[in-house]
Amino acid sequence: MRLSVSAAVWICLCAPVAAQQSWLPPEAEDGAARQLATRVAEIGVGRTDETRLSAARQLVIRVRERLESWGEEAVDHAPRFDELDLPESGRLSLDAMARYQVCNMVLMIQLQDPDFANDEDAKISSVSGLTAFTLAAMYLRHPFLGAGGNDGEIEAFLTSERMGSVLETIQTEPAARAHAERQCAPPLKALVEPSER
Fold first, then answer.
1. Which of 37, 78, 133, 172 is the most exposed place for a label (fewest CB within 10 A)?
2. Among 29, 171, 31, which residue's Cα sits nearest to residue 113?
3. What is the rounded CA–CA span in Å between residue 133 and residue 167?
C-alpha cells in the first residue's frame, strides 16, 4: 500500500466534480455511496446489496450535512499531527485536505491489519472513515478552487515526496501510526456520528 492508493481514491471521487458548481453534485454523492457499499461488501458486512447501499447513502448524506453545517470551520476540524513532520503549503484548505488524507492512509492500514481481521466494528469504522475523510477533503477542495487553486496543485501536494515520506513513516513506525490514529479519532467521530437531537 503506497500513497498512490490513497491518491487514487481522491482522484476517482473528484473526477465527476470537475465542472460542477456544487462541491458534491448528485453523481459524486452517488459514487461515494456506491464505493462505500462496495467496501462494506468486501469486508463481509451487511445482508444484501440493497441494504448496504441504503446505509451507505444515509452515511454520505450525514457527512455531507455535517460538513455543510461546519462551513469554513471544516478546516479547524482537520486533525493536527504534532508528532509528524507534515508538509505545509501555507494554504489552509490544502493543508487541511492533506491532514484528512493522512487519516485515510491510517484507515487503509487498519483495514489490512491482521489484528483487525475479526473485528467487525474496526472494519466498519475504517470503511466509513475512508468515505468521510475523502468527502471532507472534497468539501475543502471547493474553496481552494474558488480561491484560484487547481486540481493539479492538490494532486501534486498530496502525492509529493514529503507527503509520501510522512505516510511511509506511519506505515513503518508503530508510534507514528498510534499518534495518527489518536489524532484521527475525534474528527472521524464528529463526521460520522448522528447529531444529538
1. 172
2. 171
3. 16
Task: With a cut of 50, list the residues of the chain below it in pLDDT.
Answer: 1-13, 16, 19
Task: Dump pLDDT digits (tens) for 123-164.
Answer: 999 999 999 999 999 999 999 999 999 999 999 999 999 999
Task: Report which of 1, 2, 180, 9 is spatially closest to residue 103, judged by C-alpha positions.
Answer: 180
For 176, which DSSP code?
H
Environment class of residue 41 by beta-carbon count within 10 Å: exposed (0-12), middle (13-18) or buried (19+)?
middle
- The model carries a pTM of 0.89
Q: Residue 46: left (phi > 0), alpha (psi -120 to 50), or beta?
A: left
Provide the phi-psi class of 16: left if phi over 0, else alpha when psi is between -120 and 50, else beta: alpha
In whole angstroms, what is the distance from residue 107 CA to residue 170 CA? Answer: 11
Is the alpha carbon torsion for 35, 40, 43, 48 positive or negative? negative
Cell triple for 73: 470551520
Q: Exposed/middle/buried for 57, CB within 10 Å: 0-12, 13-18, 19+? A: middle
